[in-house]
Amino acid sequence: MTQPSLTKPIYILNGPNLNLLGQRQPEVYGRETLADVAQACADLAEELRFSIKALQSNHEGVLVDWIQEARLAGAAIIINPGAYSHTSVAILDALNAFEGPVIEVHISNIHKREAFRHHSYVSLRADGVIAGCGTQGYLLALRRVASLLGPR
Question: Does residue 11 carry a catalytic annotation?
């Protein structure tokens, strides 16, 4: 990703199964791939004079490691924790140690889905939650983070 300014990047973290975006349940998640989302975010970040670091893992501990890395290296975190939203106290604990803005993103509206998806541990730390806006939710989150961080 390009670095249009000398600021710390905004981490965009994606959890399990998001590597299958565009292939898995397109009727729920759409046809855009995670690479498409990352490119759209990079383009918008450049326009907003920020940089991003877009990452995806199916492994909870790797996500925790990246959140901890962002404590020193990142300006903000946008996170779609996938199914870990509903199960991971470890991700919540790591986010609680991060001092910058955190925005939680869900492509689908988790509140219109199965009951177990209605609760998110990540929401306990998030400064904002965007759900049900499709992949456009990432761009909304990026705009919100940019407004929280201030002009560049």
Answer: no
Note the pLDDT tens digit of each residue in 64-107.
999 999 999 999 999 999 999 999 999 999 999 999 999 999 99
* CB-count exposure of residue 128 (10 Å: 0-12, 13-18, 19+): middle
Q: How many domains does the chain divide into?
A: 1
Instruction: Name the catalytic one among 11, 29, 84, 121.
Output: 29
Q: Among residues 84, 106, 121, 138, which one is catalytic?
A: 106
Kindly report the CA angle at 18 between 93 and 103, in degrees rounded to 5? 45
Q: Each residue of 24-43: pLDDT tens digit? A: 777 777 788 999 999 999 99
Question: Which CATH number goes with the domain that contains 52?
Answer: 3.40.50.9100
29 noted as active-site residue: yes
Q: Is residue 143 part of a domain?
A: yes
Q: Taking the model in full, what pTM does it have?
A: 0.91
Give the rounded distance of the alpha carbon of 133 from its chain centre: 13
Q: What is the pLDDT of residue 4?
A: 40
